């Protein structure tokens, strides 16, 4: 059975007053996604009983074929380190570090705009001067992002949620026990290092938020993940996390051209390459990292971006794959970063389409419709089983 997994970060959402109480997906015109769910089964992903809240990386690892116990070891920091191809010897854990703006104890901006990779590299070098690299090592990975490697004796250090989830909150309310010492040390020392940087003077002059500290999150062990060697897989993505996971599992990894800058579907999904990949690989995983506007932009902008996803990604992928015999395609939404237990969360949607499936009653790719589908409460592990015809 050939299978495709198309994963969109932050596609699902909550009702918006700006949209008269509807979600962006309820408004968006997504004919390809609608066809997938109308001709297949729809649902929402459930939380595995007795386990920690699933993350984007653990759900993606499961959809790539890892059993749940192994998938639970997947963490963003280590996977982004794998994607960078850096030497991690002497270190046992890794964190994602994001440049943020702090203002009188408040986290004012958790996702800085218009910061270059060169500027990020300079800021990483500055904070590195305050740490022994054998103990903690800072590596710029993308504009506004770093990978932070730590020695084993810091491996049990805690990291916070993704910074954009805590914007406007007083960070002094974060726990301050022993397990939070590294997080607070990096936050405080990076603030010292960045306070004297001309980069920030220029940003303030331009009306932009300064990079005033480094925020650790997504931490985990650098222990290797082991995938199924018999599964010939391909990961197509512009996400460092997904690329790192693909590399860790022995999948081929191909870059996904930026769908937010493309003008035509062929710029993102080349039909000839897709057909070749369908013949060569058993499972193709397309993971689409969301732009900041999809997380926190105006509701109407979110609608536009969701419609863009459908035209540039879902439609060409579906058209190319429909000619494959014995096929299954899963369309999944995941949260790029999830609030802690008890936080308000959007239901994460799933639709499975393909051979030998009698459609259920779901007719539209949106939150209220999929809640009533055959796959309501399904686990990512059960979706992975459907991809192989179980």
Write a brief caption for the model.
The protein is α/β, with parallel strands linked by helices and 390 residues long. 33% of the residues lie in helices and 20% in strands. The chain has helices spanning 24-27, 31-39, 56-63, 68-71, 76-84, 117-128, 181-194, 198-205, 240-248, 271-280, 292-296, 299-321, 367-371, 380-387, and strands spanning 2-9, 41-44, 93-103, 106-109, 136-142, 145-150, 213-221, 233-237, 252-255, 283-288, 327-334, 349-354.
Cα-based radius of gyration, to the nearest Å: 21 Å
Q: What structural class do you assign from the helix and strand content?
A: alpha/beta
Query: What is the number of domains?
Result: 2
- CATH C-level of the largest domain: Alpha Beta
The portion of residues forming beta strands comes to: 15-25%
The span between the termini is: 10 Å
Globally, the shape reads globular
Q: What would you give as the CATH superfamily of the largest domain?
A: Alkaline Phosphatase, subunit A
| SS summary, helix count | 14
From the 3D structure, determine the CATH topology of the largest domain: Alkaline Phosphatase, subunit A
Strand adjacency order, main sheet = 2-12-11-1-10-8-9
Mean pLDDT: 91
Number of strands: 12
Mind telling me which CATH architecture of the largest domain this is? Answer: 3-Layer(aba) Sandwich
């Amino acid at each position: 059975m050939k299978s495709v997994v198309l994963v969109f970060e932050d596609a699902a959402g909550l009702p918006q007053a700006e949209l008269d109480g509807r979600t962006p997906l309820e408004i968006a015109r997504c004919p390809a996604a609608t066809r997938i769910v109308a001709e297949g089964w729809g649902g929402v992903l459930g939380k595995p009983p007795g386990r920690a809240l699933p993350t984007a990386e653990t759900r993606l690892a499961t959809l790539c074929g890892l059993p749940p116990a192994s998938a639970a070891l997947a963490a963003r920091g280590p996977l982004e380190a794998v994607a960078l191809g850096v030497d991690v010897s002497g270190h046992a854990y890794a964190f994602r570090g994001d440049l943020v703006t702090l203002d009188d104890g408040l986290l004012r901006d958790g996702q800085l705009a218009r910061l270059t990779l060169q500027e990020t590299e300079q800021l990483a070098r500055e904070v590195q001067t305050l740490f022994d690299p054998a103990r903690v090592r800072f590596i710029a990975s993308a504009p506004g992002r770093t990978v932070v490697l730590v020695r084993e004796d810091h491996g049990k250090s805690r990291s916070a949620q993704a910074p954009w989830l805590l914007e406007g909150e007083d960070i002094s309310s974060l726990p301050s026990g022993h397990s939070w010492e590294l997080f607070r040390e990096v936050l405080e020392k990076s603030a010292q290092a960045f306070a004297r940087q001309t980069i920030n003077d220029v940003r303030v002059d331009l009306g932009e938020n300064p990079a005033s500290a480094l925020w650790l999150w997504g931490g985990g062990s650098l222990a290797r993940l082991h995938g199924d060697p018999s599964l010939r897989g391909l990961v197509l993505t512009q996400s460092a996390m997904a690329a790192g996971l693909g590399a860790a599992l022995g999948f081929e990894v191909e870059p996904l051209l930026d769908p937010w800058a493309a003008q035509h579907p062929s710029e993102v999904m080349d039909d000839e390459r897709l057909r070749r990949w369908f013949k060569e690989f058993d499972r193709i995983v397309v993971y689409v990292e969301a732009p900041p506007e999809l997380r926190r932009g105006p509701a109407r902008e979110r609608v536009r971006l969701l419609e863009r996803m459908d035209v540039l990604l879902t439609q060409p992928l579906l058209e190319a794959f429909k000619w494959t015999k014995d096929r299954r395609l899963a369309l999944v939404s995941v949260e790029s970063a999830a609030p802690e237990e008890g936080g308000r969360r959007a239901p994460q949607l799933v639709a499975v389409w393909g051979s030998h499936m009698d459609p259920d009653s779901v007719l539209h790719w949106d939150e209220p419709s999929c809640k009533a589908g055959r796959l309501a409460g399904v686990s990512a592990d059960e979706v992975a089983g459907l991809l192989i015809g179980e």
